[in-house]
Amino acid sequence: MTHGAEFVAEVVPLLRLPRSLGIFDYLTGSYGERLQAGQLVYVPFRGRQVAAVVMRTKPYSANPAYRYATVISTIPEFPPVAEVQRNLAAWIARYYLQSPASVFHAMLPRIPSRVVPPPEKVIVPPLTIPNLVGDEFPFVEKTLRPGASILLQGNLRPECIAHLVKEVLAQQRQMLILVPEVTRADALHGFLARFFGPAAMIFPDFNVLHATWQFWRTAARGDPMVVIGTRRAVFAPLKNLTLILMLAEDDGSYKQWDQNPRYHAREVALKLAELQGCGVLLQTFAPTVTSYANSTAKLFDMHTIAPSKPPLVELVDLKAEYAMRNFNPLSRRLQEILSRVPSHSGLQALLLVNRKGTATFVRCRDCGYVPRCPQCATPFRYVTIRQPDGGIGRALESSGENLHCYRCGLTGSLPAKCPTCGGPEFRAVGFGSRRVAGYAQSFVRDGTVRRLDADCSQQERTALLGELARNEVTVLVGTAMVRSLPEITRVPMVAVLAPDAGMQQADFRASERTLQLLLGLRAMASERLIIQTHLARHPLYQVVQHGQIASWYDAELAGRQALSYPPFGRLIRLTYAHASQAMAVAQSETVAERLRRELGVSLPTVQVFGPQKSSGIVRARRQVQEIIIKIPVETPRRRVPVSLTTGYSSLAAMLNALPTPWVVDVDPDTA
């Protein structure tokens, strides 16, 4: 067979493939050079037909070591992957050390088995929206300047977002809004749809192929629209994108942590804005330390919208409570306020607890034995099945599935006797949201106390939302997930019961996350924020109470610079899981030693820590070991971080060559 006029297409299959596999060559066959970059085609791959993206075509060149297969057919119904999306996928693959195939597999929906009719053109209805007040007028104008990069500290009202959307749609352009949780996406979409009708679109669930394809073709066609979605919405094929708005940019939900590619939506959004030449607006109550550093380096314009009347922040010293023999989870000050809250007046108090369930753990009264999960060695938490919520007697129940592991999900029953000493009694230590709700109800006698945490069923959550809408809830007790409820905006009193535990975690971002939590809660409180703590004199709490936020960031940046932590360094976490502890340790020690040996010669400033048992990653019935790599950053600050191929190509090559069982997480959310 002659190949004189033959062409070769470089394609990327839409499959999850190992890091070492990249782009594959296929003969174009009868299509010749008519195949264009971005087209979707079917190709034979490992004995089956799969969809693939054409990256480019090139003249045929004989290669005896390569046996070419041929493109089967094109997929004309699917819009081509635009150059911006192809360049974005290539950047994600380089930066997060993933195969291009895995990135495209995450970016694109599955190809449907039947033809989907073309969508109708989006027409923006001529509707009015609420007027803006105060300093939001110039803020809207500033945000819509071409290529604007703004970091907003403060609340961004839905009405202000609607004005931004109106200005974008008036130009027949497109806007992307990223939110941390699905509930917030649904709520914001419902609000904007009242004014902009079909031009306000929710990013679809990829499992619903018909709706996904309709959306995909509409967005790629360039119709005016605003798209609202969680982190995956950053892959929307928006052709005429003019503004990206990210709400709560500090939220950890933007980081993909459980499957490849392990990207962060904020970094991807910044790269997308760079490729599109569009503006970007990051909203938060407490910026991440990296975003704050970028604003001080003039990579972002810092803008602040302060509340007209900030709430009173009260610190309750739990040491003094214990000295007064008050061991109740609720301090005397909190008990006093709850006993006076008016009932039948809507939500009056929000109590935030850092744990769900009844107790943090249980232990034997006689010998101190603590029941632990056999899979991950974490202390079981105790969940009572008595009613009302939180009622715990002197002796804990030993019947039912009342022991829960909140790391791997395993459940068990409290033994009737201690397996170590035979003692007959276990005691609850600490408290969770269920127990706090029981105590709160005893003080709010005429009102209604409700609880919300991950143990609540979808039916219970739906019922709670209905009660909140009807102003039937007086006090709400819950974990951090209550912050995502769109029904809760301003509450007279917000109390956080145990922020110390989060601040004392073995993570360099622990203080940062605690600050973000407290400032977010302060924004929700209309009258007072109460912080119950054992560390009332801690500088972080003083900052929250007196509002000296800049001083905390400056001190945090100085500490991180001394230790080469982000933003003055980069972290990469390598994890390896195996059913055998000995095998997991042996494999991880081999890799760590090789990294130290080779990097000691080529990149002596790079540090390798571990291996050690992972404290943040659990896989059922498998032992997980982790290695942390710390890379100093000496180059000038950039709004969009650069990949390891710039200055650390040898390290990137070593990590890409790791066997498939190894997971590479660039910029992990915890370390």
Description:
The protein is α/β, with parallel strands linked by helices and 671 residues long. It is built from 18 helices and 28 strands. The strands form 6 sheets. It has a 7-stranded parallel sheet with strand order 9-10-8-11-12-7-13, with helices on both faces. It has a 6-stranded mixed sheet with strand order 5-2-1-4-3-6. Helix 6 links the parallel strand 9 (200-202) and strand 10 (225-229). Helix 1 (83-95) packs across helix 2 (100-107) and helix 1 (83-95) packs across helix 7. The radius of gyration is 27 Å and the shape is globular. Residues 385-399 have low confidence and may be disordered.
What would you say about this model in short?
The protein has 671 residues and is α/β, with parallel strands linked by helices. Helices cover 30% and strands 22% of the residues.
Number of helices: 18
Overall geometric form? globular
Strand elements, count: 28
Percent of residues in helical segments? 25-40%
Tell me, rounded to a whole number, the average pLDDT: 86
Estimated radius of gyration: 27 Å
Strand order of the largest sheet: 9-10-8-11-12-7-13
Structural class: alpha/beta
- Stretches where pLDDT is under 50 for at least 5 consecutive residues are 385-399
Tell me the span between the first and last alpha carbons: 57 Å
User: Which range does the strand content fall in?
Assistant: 15-25%
Q: How is the main sheet built? A: 7 strands, parallel
Give the SSE map.
Layout: E1 7-13, E2 24-27, E3 40-45, E4 48-59, E5 69-70, E6 73-74, H1 83-95, H2 100-107, H3 136-143, E7 149-154, H4 158-170, E8 174-178, H5 182-196, E9 200-202, H6 209-221, E10 225-229, E11 241-246, H7 265-276, E12 279-284, H8 289-296, E13 301-305, E14 312-317, H9 318-323, H10 332-339, E15 349-352, E16 361-364, E17 381-382, E18 403-404, E19 411-412, E20 426-429, H11 433-443, E21 449-452, H12 458-469, E22 475-478, E23 491-496, H13 500-503, H14 510-524, E24 525-533, H15 539-546, H16 549-563, E25 569-578, H17 581-602, E26 607-613, E27 623-632, H18 649-656, E28 663-666
Parallel strand pairs: 2-5, 7-12, 7-13, 8-10, 8-11, 9-10, 11-12, 14-24, 15-22, 15-23, 21-22, 23-24
Antiparallel strand pairs: 1-2, 1-4, 3-4, 3-6, 16-20, 17-18, 18-19, 25-27, 25-28, 26-27
Helix pairs in contact: 1-2, 1-7
